[in-house]
Specification:
Keywords: Membrane, Transmembrane, Transmembrane helix. By secondary structure, this protein is of the alpha+beta class. It is built from 17 helices and 11 strands. The chain has 2 domains: 295 residues, no CATH class; 101 residues, no CATH class. The chain starts with 11 loop residues before the first strand and ends with a helix.
Length: 439
């Protein structure tokens, strides 16, 4: 159904607005790679998210409730070949008596737990069953796919009261979410919709499709595997599709989603590492304001189109009429630049509700003279920021910060002799650190 990323298929995004209005976008640079997430920032963010998480003693059931799977009577079977989720009635079970192969597979899993995470059912995959079946196989394959990211997660959770419970909760949240995405024409609402929009902003549209296709291939291989090595191979193949940066983005969102709501997750997105780069991609590829991702009400994925139903405040393309009503108009797609900031604003319109346009590399006279106006007034350098954050960032650049610059000059004066690339990297770091209260 879905083409593996970087194929010849043209992807599109349909924004479904109020009053049945819609806008279709052809995202530029849809083949872009997942955003790079620094390892230290990843672990620090995970630790912060973990402090607010309340993992359940029954992580699989908690993940099902999180994504409204509990409405399917609490137990369900994912059929890998048909990609269907089938509810089971009272008294029905996924399997009959476990086979010898299933028993040996389960023993191999327990031995793996003893070597890596301590004795016992370390990922809480067995529940009330004696062997690994159904979704437990997929969750184990997912854990094996994460590789080094799994170790990074455990390092981040070490200071928590029960790090293994947090790991398990994140794993089941991740796996259950992917199962729902793997069904034909998946539709995600609420929390899952916010996760989907944010994930696409971090990994890009084509990588997102590849992750779905790769997960379905992993599910089929895990369903047919009769040994632990078979599950490991299935997981490692998916790990190559996933890659470290996409895995880190997934792990952050899964941890932030534990026991949360759509609105709660949306408030945590602006505090994730790399969020400013993701916000730029969200505008260019999805046409949405990532900082207003809570306005995403539903996301549907078909063979070539992602359809996003959202409230007007999340749209990166609104212009007001004198009557006060709003009409949608597409902003320029792809990279665009202008010779002045006024030209940028005329083409792009308002930054959004309670937001202001911000130059990552500032539009100082020195920068205009050195780099030219088109290097500053463009869709990659000007991004929407919350008004309060924008004020704090501007004040920071006007301040003297010897602890950061090692200079008696203001931050703005210290930067003016630096390269465009240095100023952009510093500008993104400043937004992130000021937003998190570090600077």
């Amino acid at each position: 159904m879905l083409s593996v990323g970087c194929g010849g298929t043209t992807r599109s995004v349909r924004l479904q607005l109020e009053r049945h209005e819609s806008v279709v976008l052809i995202p530029p640079n849809s083949h872009s790679q997942p955003l790079e997430i620094d390892g230290d920032d990843f672990e620090e963010a995970l630790e912060e998210l973990a402090r607010a998480a309340r993992p359940s003693a029954r992580p699989q059931e908690a993940a099902q409730r999180l994504f409204d799977v509990s409405a399917r009577s609490g137990s369900y079977l994912f059929e890998p070949r048909g990609h269907r989720v089938t509810p089971l009635g009272p008294g029905e079970h996924l399997d009959d008596e476990p086979s010898t192969a299933e028993q040996e597979l389960t023993r191999a899993y327990l031995r793996w737990c003893e070597r890596t995470h301590g004795a016992g059912d370390c990922l809480r995959l067995l529940g009330e069953r004696a062997t690994l079946t159904g979704d437990s196989r997929y969750a184990l394959s997912m854990a094996l796919a994460q590789g080094v990211v799994l170790d990074e997660m455990m390092d981040a959770f070490q200071g928590m009261a029960d790090p293994q419970a947090l790991m398990t909760a994140a794993l089941w949240t991740w796996t259950t979410y992917m199962i729902l995405l793997a069904v034909p024409e998946p539709l995600s609402k609420g929390l899952a919709a916010v996760m989907t929009a944010t994930l696409i902003a971090y990994v890009g549209i084509d990588t997102f499709w590849s992750l779905i296709e790769g997960f379905k291939a992993m599910v089929e291989a895990a369903d047919q595997a009769t040994t632990f090595d078979g599950l490991r191979e299935a997981g490692e193949r998916y790990g190559k599709v996933l890659g470290r940066n996409a895995a880190r983005a997934f792990a952050l969102l899964a941890t932030a989603a534990i026991g949360n709501t759509a609105a709660g997750l949306a408030t945590r997105v602006p505090r994730l590492p790399g969020v400013m780069q993701a916000a730029v991609r969200a505008e260019s590829q999805l046409g949405i304001q990532l900082m207003a991702v809570g306005g995403v009400e539903a996301v549907a994925v078909s063979a070539q189109t992602v359809t996003i139903a959202l409230a007007p405040g999340a749209v990166a393309m609104a212009a007001s009429h004198p009557s006060g009503s709003a009409t949608a108009r597409a902003r320029p797609s792809g990279y665009k630049s202008w010779g002045s900031f006024s030209g940028f604003k005329k083409a792009m319109g308002p930054a959004g509700n309670n937001q202001e346009w911000h130059h990552i590399v500032e539009q100082t006279p020195d920068n205009v003279r050195r780099f030219g106006p088109h290097a500053l007034h463009n869709t990659e350098n000007v991004v929407p920021l919350d008004k309060g954050l924008h004020t704090r960032v501007s004040a920071f650049f006007s301040s003297i910060r010897r602890d950061i610059t090692g200079s008696p000059l203001t931050v703005r004066q210290w930067l003016k002799t630096r390269s465009l690339e240095f100023q952009r990297d510093f500008g993104l770091t400043a937004i992130e650190n000021i937003g998190k209260g570090r600077w």
